Amino acid sequence: MAWLTIDREKPIPLIRQLFTELRANILRGDWQAGQKLPSTRKLAEELKISRNVAVDAYEQLYAEGYIESRQGSGYYVSAGIYLEQHARHGTDAILSISEASTDSTTSTIDFRSGVPALELFPRTTWGKIVQRVCQDAPLSAFGYGRPEGRLELRQVICRYLYRTRGVQCRPEQIVITSGATQALTLIAKVLLTKGSSVVIEDPITQDIQTIFKATGAVLQPVPTDDLGLVTEQLPGTEAHPPSFVFVTPSHQFPLGGTLPIQRRLQLIRYARETDCYIVEDDYDSEFRYDSAPISSLQGLAEERVIYIGSFSKILSPGLRLGYLVLPTELVERYQNAKWFSDLHTSTLDQLSLATFIEEGHLEKYINRVKKLYRKRRQTLVHALERTFSETRGFRILGASAGLHIVVSFAGIHFTPELLEKLSDAGVRVYPVEEHAICPGRHTDKLIIGYGNVSEEKIEEGVKRLYSVLSF
Ligand SMILES: Cc1ncc(COP(=O)(O)O)c(C=O)c1O
């Protein structure tokens, strides 16, 4: 079927591509009213796609009225679908614009960090669970719910966290949020006012700085090194006590360090002496490549730590699902804050996720994607080492975990002009300096995310990086 083209490299699902191609044939009049469509089996064989893709594309055409089904005989083009020449040009123009824009985005290799492998999202399993939950959920699931979220989900998260992260908690200590971002916003609302102080890793995600600063709080940056927060440089305990210390101890963002136990204990001692909380952002700790995931800080000091978890990296950021694990005395204040914010997170999404975890799909999925990330990480590290081993001051940091690494090129400053040159060469990389609170220390470092970049593109991206940096 030479008239149908399917491009596996395009970031458009195959079902959508096939549907669009078939629809274009019908609109152009290449397929006339009453004409029989090939069987889904034949179509799948010819295009070397799964039969489900063909069935789904036909069902979409059927649902939108382009084709009709005749009992036991297959699908036929519906009557009156032909679009005249004038409109046809319009359609072509729209298609070519959307393709052009897709092409231009695919031709640039984007090493944005924190994006998981979107193409691996378990659509079929998730879809079946959503359907099942929708059929079986009690009536209460369709009404207003509790701000802390469904007990079913809080119970499975509790068991999951204990098993995988050593987090000690009861379901009553959990509040379900719309991702870690909402958890951070709720923390800011409950614990910060104008003039509050937050001790925080430097560098740290720009967005997190913005969320805390929006309350009028003052950030007290503490430098991070290859191991994470440099606890020796925490402010003196006699200084104005902070409301909390913010850390990413499993995998510092962006530098990638893992906080060693000695520093963890020092941090806990500091929090006890200053009577403040520790906010532990555990955004991607499942992905460790050289050892088992590191136990949480929360498990060492349940009464001091506010633990943030997210399903954005281990499943999909589009789901917007995360949670807070709170010391008991804070629970009620966070339930109120969540209620004020958006009443509660979507109940059907919560129940679907609970089922997904309970039936073992999450851990199976994590194991599957971890293999892929390990390969992508290896490809990236090898390509960088091969290409830049002769470059003075070249160093890779934080490669043992997560979905990104940091590369330092001593002597090179990643100015906006240099980043633009890289972008013009078709490779998008992100400067660590963008996340610095005290400027000037990290101008030679780049964040390179690999979670959502194929091995082929990683190789090509490193070549493009070299083409600019070698001059
Ligand atoms: C350190 C860190 N915390 C939290 C988040 C936010 O995650 P979410 O998508 O769950 O809001 C991110 C996003 O990349 C992150 O890098």
From TrEMBL:
User: InterPro entries this protein is in?
Assistant: Aminotransferase_I/II_large (IPR004839), HTH_trans_reg/aminotransferase (IPR051446), PyrdxlP-dep_Trfase (IPR015424), PyrdxlP-dep_Trfase_major (IPR015421), Tscrpt_reg_HTH_GntR (IPR000524), WH-like_DNA-bd_sf (IPR036388), WH_DNA-bd_sf (IPR036390)
Give the domain of life: Bacteria
Domain (HTH gntR-type) spans 12-80
SMART domains from the UniProt entry: HTH_GNTR
The alphabetical list of record keywords is: Aminotransferase, DNA-binding, Pyridoxal phosphate, Transcription, Transcription regulation, Transferase
Q: Which cofactor does it need?
A: pyridoxal 5'-phosphate
Which family would the database say this protein is a member of? In the C-terminal section; belongs to the class-I pyridoxal-phosphate-dependent aminotransferase family.
Q: What is this protein called?
A: GntR family transcriptional regulator
